[in-house]
Amino acid sequence: MLKNSSRAQPDPALRHTMPRRRLGGAALAAAFSLFALSIAWHEAHEPGVPASDDLPITQARADAAAQAPNAAPAGSAASDLVKRGEYLTRAADCAACHTADKSRPFAGGLPISTPFGTIVTPNITPDPDTGIGQWSDADFMRAMHEGIGKSGERLYPAFPYTAYTRVTEQDVLAIRAYLNTLTPIHYTPPANSLKFPFNQRWLMMFWNMFNFTEGRFVPDPKQSAEWNRGAYLVEGLAHCEECHTPRNFMQGLKTSERFSGAVQAGWHAFNITSDKVSGVGDWRDDELVAYLSTGAAPGRANAAGPMGEVVANSTQFLTPVDLRSIVVYLRSVPAVSGGETRPRHQWGNPADDVTALRGTTITGVNGAQLFLANCATCHSWTGQGVGASAPGAYPSLIHNTTVGASSANNLAMVILHGVDRTTTHADVLMPAFGDHLDDEQIAAITNYVTKQFGNPQATITAGQIAKLRTQQ
Fold this sequence. Notes:
Blueprint: H1 2-5, H2 18-45, H3 77-91, H4 94-98, E1 111-114, E2 117-120, H5 137-146, H6 161-164, H7 169-180, E3 193-194, H8 204-211, H9 225-237, H10 241-244, E4 262-264, E5 267-269, H11 285-294, E6 296-297, E7 301-302, H12 305-313, H13 320-332, H14 353-357, H15 367-374, H16 376-379, H17 409-417, E8 419-422, E9 427-430, H18 439-453, H19 462-469
Antiparallel strand pairs: 1-2, 2-3, 4-5, 6-7, 8-9
Protein name: Cytochrome c, mono-and diheme variants
Binding site for heme c 2: 240, 243-244
Subcellular location: Cell membrane
């Protein structure tokens, strides 16, 4: 029946409407053509802007990166390109999303939860059948800059092309050159699981109209080279906004609240604007650099969850120049208040519950008892930690930004999933208690810790713990 439907004659009662529809369609096409021509005319007559690759952006270097085993001989142009590409790939933290199994690096398969369903990351090794081995440089460039795949399919913004569009062509090609040196892995990740109509990729053209501006980063001549380098990294390669900026109902970024914090898969990516209460405005430069390079800023914060992975996979490898540039740029981000009245690191007092509990019969679920039984060995029963600021120290829960946050989510997620952060600075390991304690017990420990050592207004229920367990 469908095959014959194209041959069916129009209903005579509707024939008089068809010319009008054709006329309306022609008028719309003509209007669009005029609009396109006007854009082309303006592009042709605007003052020339040099290509982004020619602008004075400090070039990234991979001085500390290990050379790929199958790269060209040392000192050659090809080797330098691959070496630089490795550095840039780390700056972009590509491994975080494209590695679900450490035995299959860059082979994809990581499920990413969205309000519209689950997106599974693709294989980006040079395997010709399941990876990007048959992609041309132009294909790769179009994916990075425009969010369009090799076959013309529109990519979902879980892949941050909205940020990568700012990366220069030469840096994109350097990343491509490095990816070409990876061991090809023949692996096809599972398919996406998206609800209708969100599984229709062509609809992304409408999403892009409201949430995506294609174009390379253009340095601000009024700012220093250091600021411009920081902006290039934060806004482009490092795509910091993807986690630290709230999203609108379409899941696009709220540009009016840039870097003011957002929740991703249960984790709260905190406010990193220059606000001195809610953000990082009163952090010293060396504290910010230490946090990005080691994951620890004593008396401030210790990276865990997705941010711990960012430090382990990416920011610890950045050069001191790039780290300072990021700090310089973040200092200039307009302050956005998160509503807090007290900085997150200024909460807490030592506990003395171990004395009060001696000889006491405990009934029911008791947060203090659970803390002493599961946490005090490393964090001390007073909550002051062990090892002070030494590398690998067990951090204090007092003056700790995770414990002093207005939401208890991150603390609960750390208790559920633990911490595993490896850097050149230290191997940091906290065991996960999600398999050993039930929702009520984890809620009790979390509420005890926030009440005693952090923000007492941050509480959580067993039901909320149950929801956090399901987050990918």
